[in-house]
Amino acid sequence: MTGAESREETSGGATAAACPPAIITDGLTRRFGLVTAVDHLNLSVAPGSISGLVGPNGAGKSTTLKMLTTLLPPSEGSARVAGFDVARRPREVRRRIGYVPQLLSADGGLTGYENLMVFAMLYDVPRKERKDRIWQALRMMGLEEAGAALVKTYSGGMIRRLEIAQAVLHRPAILFMDEPTVGLDPVARRAVWEHVRELRARFGATILLTTHYMEEADDLCDVVAIMHQGKVVAAGSPASLKAQAGEGATLDDAFVHFTGNLMETGGAYRDAARTRRTARRLG
Ligand SMILES: Nc1ncnc2c1ncn2[C@@H]1O[C@H](COP(=O)(O)OP(=O)(O)OP(=O)(O)O)[C@@H](O)[C@H]1O
Ligand SMILES: [Mg+2]
């Protein structure tokens, strides 16, 4: 599979084939000066699927998500999200999506409830519905008990779950999450996975996430696209990617097979640096 030449189909299940894709890109490209961060990307994400973008640091994952969420204009090519062109109809796209950014965005000086209220106003959730929606989102993310506490008293896992709650308050059809479980311990990570699965089950949301944890991609995603130097170098179900990497291969092996990279170069440092930044911000 080349990614650049052929469109990588991602399918969420048997019924998804007949529906138009939730996300489709055509030669999507972003340059920063001489760096081509995303290089003629052709992706197709089926509605109702949980899809994962994986790849080494600097592969272009976050840049792809920023273009799909209308935060960054493409240099070339196009993308449609929920049926609307990201460059021509950004407002229509924004109304239908939620975004959990790579860096933490919750305010430590506010309670969980207050953080969600900010987003309820930002997303134009009708005034009468705000309170109910906020408690519903807190409940769904397992934060009901913690809703009245200041976010600076939350664990990393609770903060990430709050940020997912923020991103789904307005019930978006499509949810983008950039490294939703970075820096979380294995138990907290699994709790996030369960909540993400519930989001799909309850609202039929389409989810596109990035991750450096191959176990996460394997467990959570219907389809995984492996990015390297701005291109998709392989895409398919975790099982098919593993099969292509050889008998008995793990998704880690498939990652190395397709990118020629060793996993997580500098990953521990990056996680630690982020955790420290977060602690400073929330402290
Ligand atoms: N605002 C920017 N200005 C200049 N270069 C940028 C900018 N944002 C990203 N880049 C460059 O684009 C390339 C892709 O970056 P991107 O953040 O999309 O990678 P990533 O796959 O998300 O990496 P990571 O796993 O480290 O989060 C990198 O070479 C990066 O340095
Ligand atoms: Mg990134």
Question: Brief overview, please?
Answer:
With 283 residues, the chain is α/β, with parallel strands linked by helices. The chain has one domain (8-282): 3-Layer(aba) Sandwich (Rossmann fold), CATH 3.40.50.300.
Structural class: alpha/beta
Q: CATH homologous superfamily - what is it?
A: P-loop containing nucleotide triphosphate hydrolases
User: How can the largest sheet be summarized?
Assistant: 6 strands, mixed
Q: Overall 3D geometry?
A: globular
Ligand list: adenosine-5'-triphosphate, magnesium ion
CATH topology: Rossmann fold
* Tally of discrete structural domains: 1
The CATH architecture classification is: 3-Layer(aba) Sandwich
Contiguous helical run count: 10
The number of strands is: 12
For the record, the CATH class is Alpha Beta
Range of helix content: 25-40%
End-to-end C-alpha gap: 46 Å
Query: What is the gyration radius calculated from CA atoms?
Result: 18 Å
Can you write the helix and strand succession as a string? EEEEEHEEHEHHHEHEHEEHHH
Residue fraction in strands = 15-25%
Low-confidence stretches: 1-6, 8-17, 263-273
Mean pLDDT: 87
